[in-house]
Each structure stands twice: as structure tokens, then as C-alpha cells.
Specification:
Blueprint (H helix, E strand, L loop, with lengths): L2 E5 L3 H12 L3 E5 L3 H8 L10 H10 L3 E4 L2 H5 L4 E4 L14 H13 L4 E5 L7 H12 L6 E5 L9 H6 L4 E5 L2 H11 L6 E4 L1 H32 L3 H9 L20 H14 L5 H25 L8 E5 L14 H11 L3 E5 L4 H4 L7 E2 L3 H5 L4 E4 L11 H7 L4 E4 L6 H6 L3 E3 L6 H4 L3
Parallel strand pairs: 1-2, 1-4, 2-3, 4-5, 5-6, 7-8, 9-10, 9-12, 10-11, 12-13, 13-14
Antiparallel strand pairs: 6-7
The structure holds uridine-5'-diphosphate-xylopyranose (UDX).
Uridine-5'-diphosphate-xylopyranose binds next to helix 9.
Length: about 450
């Protein structure tokens, strides 16, 4: 059993803390936000993540997991300190490192014994060295420490299983012995462990996220071309995905990527390149294509309804979160889409299984409904923003019958166009050029 401290109880922090505790370690999770820590002590999770509450409760009861706001308490006899604080987007797209700096100096001021500081937050290349410098400046003499980078690759909504079954663990350090000790901590996960230097590990995280974002923008560009040429992007993607060099994942065309990682990380990587005098053309194209998706969606709604001004129309949004199984609204395409529809004169309504509470203050004019059926009554058009499982099994016949006009814009391609046409919908998906056959454009 190792003693671990995790600093930050946001997404990455709480998952890391709960999972390491579940692997049999003694974990103290620290946050400077007293309300969050008080909540956690009372069983209230800071985020919505399937399975998290059960995992936290189990490990708290087994006395492997506890919470504190005190660095002195968290670092007592601790061998490993994970930094998992937020790195929000600053001006010009670069990451804002104020929380990382604060964590590093607090660690330094409370360091009591030899410590390995492991950075999990996504930070610009070179931050590990900078953290080491801050700790050196603030700590009392003679206490040895090392810095290791261990970027996280968790997906919201699947974070626990991603942590427990990683495709790989990346460790970067200039101190081989420290990297080896951190590797030992990860051995129960039975994943390939890539050990490299600090900066390379930090770069692996950015390059991975930028590549995944590129796949999404790529397929969205192909979707546009499919629409013009009469092909179906869902089948194009399936046909491409069998090629093992391409792979089937991250080729779902739609209204673009959102969330706390891709938008921020692609911009941050572009910013790092620009600071060195480069012109990262591909990264800019990825960002531009993604931004255009939101306008594409609004344009599509206007085309379907046959009007530029949407005054007098009511549009119902199915799903608000940036993806299913989360209440996270950060960079959710639905935010821009709802606001643009409102700006064009439409009355916008919404239903989301989990995210309405988060979304309501961000979309004050959007009327939230307790279920899709109530929302659909009197709507001119429904739009799928998020591919929640429960939308697959909706009674669409019932929904169709209560709408004012039966327009259905499927921004995530979750429905079968022919079936929707049979139900009487005027349906359009994304990148499905042949929709023209079934849609009354
Ligand atoms: C992502 C990375 O997957 C993860 O490794 C990293 O640690 C954090 O960023 P996350 O933001 O939770 O995770 O979501 P993810 O499932 O990757 O989806 C990101 C966005 O891309 C969502 O808005 C999703 O709708 C969109 N997406 C994803 C597509 O539009 N098409 C796809 O084919 C896949």
C-alpha cells in the first residue's frame, strides 16, 4: 500500500484519487475549495460521472480515501503527490497555469519527506521543468523531490473504465528512478508503459488530442463533400474504418467537438507552435472546421424550415451536453447553436437527461422541459445535439403527431433516414447527401 496525495478534485483529480484508492493505496484528495471538500466528505460528488459515487463511497468506507483542504495533512508521509488542477484557456489560447503554480508552491512549503510530484494536468511543454523550479525555490533545503509527467487520457462519461483499462500509461521524467516508482504504481493496470523525458511526455498528450480532433474535423469536412456529391458519410466512415491504418474510431461526423479538452488543447498547441515562429496550418484548419460546424447546423435548420428569419418558429433541442453521459457544458456546440437560433428569432426549448441544471444559467432564454415528449408539443423542428442512448428508443411516432411541423434535424446521425421518412418526418442528418430523396428541402 502506497500513500498518495491528489491535488485538485476536478474531473481528473477525483477519478485519479478514487481509482488509486480502489487499487489498494491510501489516498488523500486535496482541494482548496472548502465547499467541494465538505461536499465530498458528505458523499456529494463534484462532477457527474457514471459509477463515481459508488467508487468513492466504497473507498471512503474502507478508509483508503479521505479528503482535506490542508497541504500539511495531505503530504504527511506521502511518497507521491499528483497535481490534477485545472489549466483553463487563457488569453490567445495559451493554457493558464496559475493553479499549477499555486499547487507547486504549496507542495514546496509543506514538503516533509522525499516526494515524487506527478503532473496529470494538461500543461504546455516545459511546465514540468517550471514546476521543478518553483518547488526548488520554495522548499526547505535538503528535502529531495522529483517531477514526473503522467498525462491523463480519460474520456468524460467513461473515465473510470478508461483509468482502469488504459491503452497506455505515459511517464516522462529526467529521473529514471522516480519514473520507475511511478511505473510500479501503474503496474496493476497491465497497460504498456511508455517512459520518456518530461517534455516528450507533455507533448504526447497534446499530439494525441490534436490528432483525435483532426480525425473529427477531417470526417466533418468529408461530410460536407458527401452532402454535395450525394454520398453517405456514415457509410463512408464505416468503409474507411476497416482499414487498420485508419481505424473505426473518432470518425462520427456531426456538429463538431466540444468539451474541456479538444478545443482548449488544440488551441494551446497552436499557440505553442506560434510562439516559436511556426505557422501550424493543420491545427488552424482543424479549429476552423470545428467552429464552422455550429454555423452549418444553424444554416441547416434555416434551410429545412425554408426561411432565413426564424421568428414565430419553435425549435426543440434534444441534448445539450457536449457528449452523452456527462452534464458538462464546456464548449458544448449546443450553446452557440441555441444562441444563434434565438438571434434568428426562434423560440428555443431543450431537454437533456442530465445537463439541464448546468445549461440553464448559460442559456437563460431556453425553456427546459422534463422530457422530450412535452418539449416536442407544438415544435416546428427538433434537433439532435447529443447522442444520448435514451434518444434511440423514443416513441417518435408519438412525438411526430404532437409537433406543429415534422422537421427533424439529426446533428449526430443517430436515426435511420428511411425509417424517419416512413414515420412522416422531414428528416435530415449530417453528411448524408441522399437525404435529399427523403427530405422535403
Ligand atoms: C477527450 C479525449 O478523448 C481524452 O483522451 C482526453 O483525456 C480528454 O479529451 P472527452 O473530451 O471526454 O475526452 O470526450 P471525447 O469522447 O473524446 O469527445 C470529445 C468531443 O468530440 C465530443 O464533443 C464528441 O461529441 C466529439 N466527437 C467525438 C465527434 O464529434 N465525433 C467523433 O467521432 C468522436
Amino acid at each position: 500500500m502506497k500513500k498518495i496525495c491528489v491535488i485538485g478534485t476536478g474531473y481528473v483529480g477525483i477519478i485519479t484519487a478514487a481509482c488509486f484508492a480502489d487499487l489498494g493505496n491510501r489516498v488523500v484528495a486535496l482541494d482548496i475549495d472548502e465547499e467541494k471538500i465538505e461536499g465530498l466528505k458528505n458523499g456529494k460528488m463534484p462532477i457527474y460521472e457514471p459509477g463515481l459515487k459508488e467508487l468513492v463511497d466504497r473507498n471512503v468506507n474502507a478508509e483508503r480515501l479521505s479528503f482535506t483542504t490542508s497541504y500539511a495533512e495531505a503530504l504527511e508521509n506521502t511518497e507521491f503527490a499528483f497535481i490534477a488542477v485545472g489549466t483553463p484557456e487563457g488569453v490567445d489560447g495559451e493554457a493558464d497555469l496559475k493553479y499549477v503554480a499555486a499547487a507547486a508552491s504549496s507542495i514546496a512549503q509543506n514538503i516533509q519527506n522525499e516526494l515524487i510530484i506527478i503532473n496529470k494536468s494538461t500543461v504546455p511543454v516545459g511546465t514540468g521543468d517550471w514546476v521543478a523550479k518553483i518547488v526548488n525555490e520554495h522548499k526547505s533545503d535538503g528535502v529531495p523531490f522529483s517531477v514526473v509527467s503522467c498525462p491523463e487520457f480519460l474520456r468524460e462519461g467513461a473515465a473510470i473504465s478508461d483509468f482502469m483499462n488504459p491503452h497506455r500509461v505515459v511517464l516522462g521524467s529526467m529521473d529514471e528512478e522516480a519514473a520507475d516508482k511511478v511505473a510500479q504504481l501503474h503496474l496493476p493496470l497491465r497497460a504498456p508503459i511508455v517512459v520518456t523525458d518530461l517534455r516528450t511526455a507533455e507533448m504526447i498528450k497534446y499530439a494525441s488530442n490534436a490528432f483525435l480532433a483532426t480525425k473529427i474535423s477531417f470526417i466533418n469536412e468529408i461530410a460536407n463533400i458527401c452532402e454535395d456529391l450525394g454520398a453517405d458519410v456514415t457509410e463512408v466512415a464505416a468503409g474507411m474504418g476497416y482499414d487498420q491504418r485508419i481505424g473505426p474510431h473518432f470518425l462520427s461526423a456531426g456538429i463538431g467537438y466540444g468539451g474541456s479538452c479538444f478545443p482548449k488543447d488544440v488551441k494551446a498547441l497552436a499557440h505553442m507552435a506560434e510562439e516559436k515562429g511556426r505557422h501550424p496550418q493543420m491545427l488552424h484548419a482543424v479549429i476552423d472546421i470545428n467552429t464552422d460546424r455550429r454555423q452549418m447546423a444553424v444554416q441547416r435548420v434555416k434551410e429545412m424550415l425554408g426561411k432565413e428569419l426564424l421568428t414565430g418558429t419553435t425549435i426543440g433541442l434534444l441534448g445539450l451536453s457536449f457528449k452523452p453521459n456527462t452534464d458538462d457544458m464546456r464548449e458544448a456546440p449546443s450553446l452557440d447553436i441555441a444562441k444563434s437560433l434565438e438571434a434568428a428569432g426562434a423560440q428555443v426549448r431543450a431537454y437533456d437527461p442530465i445537463a439541464m441544471e448546468e445549461a440553464a444559467p448559460l442559456l437563460p432564454k431556453v425553456e427546459m422541459f422534463p422530457n422530450p415528449y412535452k418539449m416536442a408539443v407544438g415544435c416546428d423542428l427538433l434537433m439532435v445535439n447529443t447522442e444520448w442512448n435514451e434518444f434511440q428508443q423514443l416513441d417518435l411516432e408519438k412525438i411526430h403527431d404532437t409537433m406543429k411541423q415534422p422537421f427533424l434535424f439529426d446533428g449526430r446521425n443517430i436515426y435511420d433516414p428511411d425509417k424517419m421518412a416512413q414515420l412522416g418526418f422531414k428528416y435530415r442528418g449530417v453528411g448524408r447527401g441522399y437525404d435529399g430523396r427523403v427530405a422535403d428541402k
